[in-house]
Structures are given as structure tokens and as C-alpha cells.
Amino acid sequence: MSLFSRRPEPRTVVAPAALPPGADTPRSLWSDGFGRLAVRAVQIIVVVVLVAGLIWGIQQVTLVIIPLILALIFASAFGPVTMWLRRKGVPAVVATLLTLLAVVAVLGALGWLVVNAVVDQWDYLSAQAVEGFETAQDWYHTLPFALSPDQVNQAISGIQDFVTSAQFGTGALAGVSAVASFVTGFVLMVVILFFFLKDGPRMWEFVLRPFRGADYDRARRIGDKTVTVLGSYVRGTASVAAVDAIGIGIGLAILQVPLALPLAVLVFMLAFIPIVGAVTAGILAALVALVTNGWVVALIVVGIVVLVNQLEGNFLQPVLMGRSMKLHSFVVLVVLAGGTAIGGILGTLLAVPLTAVVWGIVTVWNGPDKPAEWARKKKRSNPVPLSGDESKA
Q: Going by C-beta distance under 8 Å and a sequence separation of 6 or more, which residues neighbour residue 363?
């Protein structure tokens, strides 16, 4: 028998020593309840750090990000108009320009009406405001804690010193810089909006080129859902805001409250801020009525605002905005507070639609009508039937 044909000797396998009962293996340190909690905590910390880094990065390039987001929102709202014109045989460039010109014409007409109304009623309103201020001042001097003339003069002197200080000059320069940034961002937004309206689908197809199979289908669903939600939000909110503005404006005109048209336009604009906007518009309208027409008319204005807001909340929003924008009021308030803290006025305006987009993406994550696993409704088990006495109780 040769060396290569000899059968190998059997090897003895030594079993590992048994661990005493209750001893932890290295794997069990992460598999028990506390270990799983630690893993989740680390995951949450990583997610929070990534989100904070993303927000910080967005804040560094707001001059580009904000016009991009606004252009996407407006393109989602006005895209159907452009597509309708193109289906009628209008060239893409002409259809896009016509859509942009129509939007500019509507906004310009509203601005002209507001300015014209303010100029026409400015003298009357200023006289009423001065009279109301003098009345309030006379009433204030009857209070036991009214300020003395010396304290008023000191306050006026402090204001004058601040106006003539270097700090005020620095603030004025910052204001000029903010205006320049606004103009730059507005021009950039118009340019981006033009290309979104003209070549939006082609641009999105270019972005989706790296995706294949199920990932491609999911990316398509995300894009379609984003456009649908943003378009529904803008068109639905604009419709609701128009009804609010018309209703409150008619009420102010019947009561002969000055600046009825500018206040109606203000109601329309503030309606894009959910919950808070309607309250703010009602307060401003009531204050104008209080100064110019007295407290009885102001109370009637408050009643009109409450009635219109009830009509909006119970009928208009469910019908015009649909279930795609269904967000709980608590979520809306939290999102508004967070958006205001992060982005100021723009954050307030963009917080709700962006949150609706995120939730819309979750609802189509696994299919057209299949939300992500964690977001699906859980089926309740059948409750234990109660006895006769318990059911009566």
C-alpha cells in the first residue's frame, strides 16, 4: 500500500465546554432587551445626525434650494395647463411661455387691485387710525399705571439714538443684501420653473437612468406621487383660499369696512399657512373693523370669519383637496412650528406640503396602493366577548 493510498486516521472532535446556566455569550449581549434598545438608540442617533447634516447643508445653499423647491411646487400646480396646451398642438416653448405669462398676469392684476384700493382709501384709513390712536391714548392716561411724560420722552430719545447708531446702519445694509438675495432667488426660480414646465418629464427620466427593475418602478412611483401631492396641495389650497377670500371680502364690503379688497387678498395669501393663517387673517380684519367701524362691526367680522372657516374645514377641504392631503391637525401644528424654527416664513409655507409629500411617498413605497410595512394598518384581533352584566355596565 503506497503512502498516497493509505486511509487517514479518524480525528477526534472535542466538544466545547458547556457554559454554566445563566452565562451570557458575546452574541446574547446584543440580543436581549437592553441590547436591542442600545442598537435602536445608535440607529436613531445616526439618523438624527444625518438629518441635521442635511438641514445644515440646505441652509448653506438656500439661494439655490429654495428656488428649486418653489419651482417644483409651481410646476406641479401649473404643469397640467402646459400639457393641455401641448396636446392642443402648441409648441413646447410657446406653451411654457403662455403658462408663465398667465401666472404673471394674474399676480400682477391682484397686485394692481390691492395697491389701487390702498391708495384710494389711504386718507380715510389714516384719519381713522389717528383718531383711534388718540382715543386709545386718552383712555390710557386714565389708567393708574400710565407712563409719565418723562418716561415717554426717554423712550423716544432711545429710539432716535438707535436710528442714528452704527447698529441701525448695519441692519439697513443687511436688509439691502436680503432684497438682493430675494431678487436673485426669484429670477432663478423663474428660470428653473421654465425648464421644469418645458422638459420636466425628460429631466426626470434622465435622473432615473441608474435605476433598474423594482428600484426603477419605486422611483417612478415616488416621482409621480410627489408631483400629484404638490399639485393637489397648491390647487386645492388656492381654491379654498379663493372661497375664503371671496366670502370674507363680501362680508367686509357689506359692512363697509375700509380696505375690503386688500384684506380679502391678504386672506387668500395667509390661507396657504394651515390653521395659523386663517386665525391671523381674521384678527387683522377684525382689528381694521374695530379701528374704523367700532366694536359691533368688529364682532360681526369675527362671526363671518368663524363661519367661513367652519365651511372651509368641514366641507371645502375634504372635497377640493381629497384624501391625499390628509394630515392630522397635531402633525400640522408640529410641522409648522418646526418649519418656522428652521426656515422662518418660507419654512412655515413649505413645511406642510413637504410633509405631505413624505407621507405620500410612504404610502406608495411597496406599490401603488401598498404603504411601507411599518406604516400599514394593523389588524385587530377579535375582542373577547363580554358577559351580559359586563356589556350592560
A: 225, 371, 375
